[in-house]
């Protein structure tokens, strides 16, 4: 009974009073102090007074501003970027931006514009980007021409424009991007294109317009950075219309909702009269594909045949010695050899991602591609019991290899001996069956990035990562360690150059204090979505200035001896942890509130205990951890009783002593 009474007395003496200090939420979200703000979708009808005059980047979309006048944003004279998407704007009056000399981007997307005054865009000294997408424009004369001399990009997509003829005094000489996608343009005349002659290296977008006719010679001798005619039903019309033109990139792809005709080899004859480096033909189907199909492709450097229903490329293709990049994603090859890679001897980049059938890598199918540097074979149901030297034969210059999201791969020692120049290797979500205790990567001395997330690795094999002397970035997300613990001796010990380590969702319960001692160059450590406690951060005490992500763990209390370790880090994320907001955690809470600038995810860094503070942001909690008034009363009573007990004890001892003299 006495011990219980003592505990109760002490609890009453040192009981803490807890309360949350709730601050008024800012109406707009601050992305960068005094500079960048998001005020979207708040039902605003004017600029809030809380927005500082120094604001430079403002996202103000999805509010209600039917009219823009010269007083609407007059206070924000430092604006550089202004997004007014879907603010139900109908009228833009004279000199609406007269005070905004630094403004270079105005976004008016999704506003039903009825009127824009001729001088509505006056003021900015260097307006470069204007977005008038989905504003109901049907005629280019609607756009005010004043103060557009420096305009570099004009976005007019999803309107009702049927002619691209600009007014004679429209300043287009500095335009680099002109976007007409998803309008009602069906015919391009020589006069239309002639108006664009003042531009240089223009990117012109006609996607989604279904061009039905181009006046012969309209594009003659014209030079473009890129041309896009995606969604056009009859490509032969476009290719004939572009004769004697020059463009770096030509986009002729289709879309899922477009019922286009099958392409024939004859349709590509027009390409012979066009100077082009890159062509995209995604989501088409070539009915009579043969070596002749590629007769006019001989000057290409890049070719994209994504989703072309291909099950092979014909052998005997000639003259494509300049092709550097070939994209064959989402096709239906059975074997890698069906690509007939020998037809493209200069390839440096090959992508066969998302193959629709199980892809057999075969043996030496790419051995003629001696210059290949990048190979993407992800999402292709590849399975191999002994990978990958035979399959990657003679690819000695390969630098980036992606085999992620495939079926199980068996890896022998030095499995990538044929690719000693690899700098990046992605094996994510591919079950790796390592045969033997030696590292399959031991000859990859130049490898810098390795993604092994969700590979069902044997993390007990301490030699698994041996040889990766220059590895900088390692992703082990989703791989589990024995007993949920990383011991002092582990597979990471040899990675002395490592800078970024991702160990999220690894089921970790603890980390030995010495586990990362050899990893002294780390700048980014992600331990999120585990079950670690605060003490696990002791393993990082030797590191400084790192980004530390401990979100979604089991951290309740952060011991005070770990605060120096946290103090020396640059950014910390402790969100979604069941943090204890009682006096047992007072030192950490106080330090946290004094160092909010260090923390990421503060909105979700909340109390879990006691119940009265559950869900309260840690930054809003105030604890009083002294002795309360009731505690003082019980302390006085306690001391009084102790004094009386002491006095009686002394008297008793003295009486006993004299009785026994």
Automatic annotation (TrEMBL):
A GO MF term: lipopolysaccharide immune receptor activity
Gene Ontology cellular component annotations, sorted alphabetically: lipopolysaccharide receptor complex; mitotic spindle; nucleolus; nucleoplasm; plasma membrane
Cell location: Cell membrane
SUPFAM superfamilies: L domain-like (SSF52058)
GO BP annotations listed: B cell proliferation involved in immune response; defense response to Gram-negative bacterium; detection of lipopolysaccharide; inflammatory response; innate immune response; MyD88-dependent toll-like receptor signaling pathway; positive regulation of lipopolysaccharide-mediated signaling pathway; toll-like receptor 4 signaling pathway
The UniProt record lists the keyword Transferase: no
Residue intervals of the LRRCT domain: 577-626
Top-level taxonomic group: Eukaryota
Cited Pfam families: LRR_11, LRR_8
Principal cellular location given in the protein's record: membrane
Keyword terms, alphabetized: Cell membrane, Glycoprotein, Immunity, Inflammatory response, Innate immunity, Leucine-rich repeat, Membrane, Receptor, Repeat, Signal, Transmembrane, Transmembrane helix
Topological relation to the membrane, as annotated: Single-pass type I membrane protein
TM region positions: 627-654
Keyword Repeat appears in the UniProt entry: yes
Segment forming the signal sequence: 1-20
Job description of the protein: May cooperate with MD-1 and TLR4 to mediate the innate immune response to bacterial lipopolysaccharide (LPS) in B-cells. Leads to NF-kappa-B activation. Also involved in the life/death decision of B-cells.
Known partners and oligomeric status: M-shaped tetramer of two CD180-LY86 heterodimers.
Family stated for the protein in its record: Belongs to the Toll-like receptor family.
Protein name from the UniProt record: CD180 antigen
Source organism per UniProt: Ursus maritimus
Gene this protein is translated from: CD180
């Amino acid at each position: 009974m006495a011990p219980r009474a003592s505990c109760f007395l002490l609890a009453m003496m040192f009981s803490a009073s807890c309360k949350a200090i709730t601050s008024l939420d800012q109406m707009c979200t601050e992305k960068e102090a005094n500079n960048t703000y998001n005020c979207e979708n708040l039902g605003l009808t004017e600029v809030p007074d809380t927005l500082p005059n120094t604001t430079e980047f403002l996202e103000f979309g999805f509010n209600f501003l039917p009219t823009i006048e010269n007083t609407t944003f007059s206070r924000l004279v430092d604006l550089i970027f202004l997004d007014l998407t879907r603010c139900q704007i109908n009228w833009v009056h004279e000199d609406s931006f007269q005070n905004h000399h630094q403004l270079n981007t105005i976004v008016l997307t999704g506003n039903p514009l009825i009127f824009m005054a001729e001088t509505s865009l006056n003021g900015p000294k260097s307006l470069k980007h204007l977005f008038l997408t989905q504003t109901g424009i049907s005629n280019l004369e609607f756009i005010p021409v004043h103060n557009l001399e420096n305009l570099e990009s004009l976005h007019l997509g999803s309107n009702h424009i049927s002619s691209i003829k600009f007014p004679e005094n429209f300043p287009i000489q500095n335009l680099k991007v002109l976007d007409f996608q998803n309008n009602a343009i069906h015919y391009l005349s020589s006069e239309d294109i002639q108006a664009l002659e003042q531009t240089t290296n223009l990117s012109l977008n006609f996607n989604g317009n279904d061009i039905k006719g181009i006046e012969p010679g309209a594009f003659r001798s014209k030079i473009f950075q890129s041309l896009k005619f995606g969604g056009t039903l009859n490509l032969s019309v476009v290719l004939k219309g572009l004769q004697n033109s020059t463009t770096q990139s030509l986009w002729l792809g289709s879309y899922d909702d477009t019922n286009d005709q099958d392409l024939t080899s004859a349709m590509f004859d027009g390409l012979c009269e066009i100077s082009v480096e890159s062509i995209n033909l995604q989501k088409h189907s070539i009915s009579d594909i043969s070596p002749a199909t590629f007769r006019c492709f001989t000057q290409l450097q890049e070719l994209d045949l994504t989703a072309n229903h291909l099950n092979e490329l014909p052998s005997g293709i000639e003259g494509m010695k300049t092709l550097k990049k070939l994209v064959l994603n989402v096709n239906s090859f059975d074997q890698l050899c069906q690509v007939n890679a020998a037809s493209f001897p200069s390839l440096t980049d090959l992508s066969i991602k998302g193959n629709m059938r199980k892809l057999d890598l075969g043996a030496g199918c790419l051995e003629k591609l001696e210059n290949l540097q990048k190979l993407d074979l992800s999402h292709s149901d590849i399975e191999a019991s002994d990978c990958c030297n035979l399959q990657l034969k003679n690819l000695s210059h390969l630098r980036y290899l992606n085999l992620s999201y495939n079926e199980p791969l068996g890896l022998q020692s030095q499995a990538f001996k044929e690719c000693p120049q690899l700098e990046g290797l992605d094996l994510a979500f591919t079950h790796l069956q390592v045969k033997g205790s030696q590292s399959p990567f031991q000859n990859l001395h130049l490898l810098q990035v390795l993604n092994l997330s969700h590979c069902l690795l044997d993390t007990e094999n301490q030699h698994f990562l041996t040889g990766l002397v220059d590895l900088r970035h390692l992703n082990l997300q989703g791989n589990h360690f024995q007993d949920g613990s990383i011991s002092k001796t582990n597979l990471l010990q040899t990675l002395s150059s490592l800078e970024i380590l991702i160990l999220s969702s690894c089921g970790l319960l603890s980390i030995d204090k010495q586990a990362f001692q050899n990893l002294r160059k780390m700048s980014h450590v992600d331990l999120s979505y585990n079950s670690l406690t605060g003490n696990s951060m002791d393993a990082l005490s030797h590191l400084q200035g790192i980004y530390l992500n401990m979100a979604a763990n089991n951290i309740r209390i952060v011991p005070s001896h770990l605060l120096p370790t946290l103090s020396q880090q640059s950014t910390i994320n402790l969100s979604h942890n069941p943090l204890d907001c009682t006096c047992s955690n007072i030192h950490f809470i106080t330090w946290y509130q004094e160092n909010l600038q260090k923390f990421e995810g503060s909105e979700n860094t909340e109390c879990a205990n006691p119940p009265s503070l559950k869900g309260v942001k840690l930054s809003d909690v105030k604890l009083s951890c002294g002795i309360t008034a009731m505690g003082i009363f019980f302390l006085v009573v306690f001391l009084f009783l102790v004094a009386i007990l002491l006095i009686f004890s002394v008297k008793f001892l003295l009486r006993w002593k004299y009785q026994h003299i």
